[in-house]
Amino acid sequence: MNLNLSEEQEMIRASVFDYFSTAYGFDRHLERLGRPAGAPSEAWQAMGELGWLGLTVPQDDGGLGLGPEETMLLMEGAGAALCTEPLLASAILAAPLLAGAAAGSAAARALRAAISGRASLALAWTESDRGFAPLPADTRAERRGETWLLSGRKVLVDNGAEADWLVVAARGEDGVALLLVDGAADGLTRGGAPLADGTRSADLVFRDTPATACLASGPAAETLLLRAVYRGLAATCALALGAMERSLEICRDYLHERSQFGKPLAALQVLQHRYVDMLIAAERARSMTLLAALRADAAAAGDAEARRDLGLAKLTVGRSARHVGGQAIQLHGGMGMAYEYPIGHYYRKLLCCDAAFGSQDDHLALLAEGLAAPASA
User: Fold this and answer.
1) I need a labelling partner for 323 at 20 to 30 A (CA). Which of 34, 39, 184, 360 fits?
2) Residue 210 phi/psi, 5° resolution?
3) What pLDDT is recorded for position 373?
4) What's phi and psi for 140, nearest 5 deg?
5) Intra-chain end-to-end CA distance of the chain, in Å
6) pLDDT for the residue 113
7) CA distances from 218 to 92, 205, 224, 338 (A)
8) What is the CATH classification number for the domain harbouring 325?
9) Is 1 part of any domain?
10) Same domain as 160, residue 88
């Protein structure tokens, strides 16, 4: 298997890091954290102009038609820049689910607006604040004539409070159904709150909320939902990887700039050993992130080995994230706790990445169940 980046992938990686290094600095990150929820974002429109918001949307629907490996490059750059824009929620999770809609339909209009940066999307799929269960359980979709009505609750929906359109996974007559809901629909209550890293999630309550369109139902909807969730899991690993790599760069500079007893901190052997351990953890996370990107679609198709690989990747990346983030704080001492200094913000980003799409404990439990299943059969 050739793991080298293609020429096109190298161009994507270069454009991602060029943009974030010039237009998305830490000072602007602090400004964005103080921005009111739902305020217009020039960065979001710029990402639309760069084509990132339609990265994995088929070309026939106005996107770039790329896959999880290219998504890894984008999200790695976003993690390194502490990006708070809803790239994962809108571009990676929800936008591909609107592909294939009839021209002129509400879904097609929503997709065009999202790709161009004039709107954002969210995928509402989780119903519990613990565990990792991609398929919905209790939210119901009832068809009344030509209208679908939703009843139930979704939790921790990334970008759920600000999204202009929601893609909601529910249980319908034929099994799983994916429904498009206007963010201003009747019967929809959205309670948003900021997470530790500055991004926002929301709990959603549906009370006979009308859906604008049914995107898919039955086995087709289940396959689409699983692909979105597993690609999102792989993208979260990449987000953590980018944050780890930038944390290492900040620590390296700090150890060379700060002195103690006339010598730079980098000359202390105990700190050298800590830094090398952090490097090893980040490299381990990189290999597992690449594995997740390569295996995401196979996992969605039902490959048990691929799902095990994704669980291992999320577990390993989560452990590396907490180790690198925690050690970065320790290397900085009191400076690591200062709000105006970046390293604490990277630690918060890594904690959120660890918790998203199932924590270490969640995936460890799923892996243990998978190992125990053959013995109990």
Assistant:
1) 34
2) -75, 140
3) 62
4) -110, 145
5) 35
6) 96
7) 22, 23, 10, 50
8) 1.20.140.10
9) no
10) no
Reference 181, options 156, 204, 155; nearest CA is: 204
- Both 226 and 367 in one domain: the answer is yes
Kind and range of the H or E run holding 353: helix 342-355
Question: 310 and 248 in one domain?
Answer: yes
Low-confidence ranges of the chain (pLDDT < 50): 375-377
CA distance 80 to 316: 19
Say what the pLDDT of residue 2 is.
58
Q: How many helices (H) and strands (E) does the chain have?
A: 10, 10
Q: What 3-state class would DSSP assign to 103?
A: coil
**CA separation for the pair 48, 116 (Å, rounded):** 5
- Same domain, yes or no: 226 and 344: yes
CB 177 within 8 A of CB 150: no
pLDDT value at residue 375: 47
Tally of CB atoms within 10 A around 237: 33
Last residue of a domain, one of 116, 133, 148: 116
Q: Are residues 205 and 233 in the same domain?
A: no
> From CA 250, how far away is CA 137, in angstroms rounded?
43
Record the pTM.
0.94
Smallest CA-to-CA distance from 98 within 176, 212, 242 is with 212
Range of the domain at 369: 221-376
Q: How many domains does the chain have?
A: 3
Burial class (CB in 10 A: 0-12, 13-18, 19+), 50: middle
- State the residue for tokens 């200062």: 338
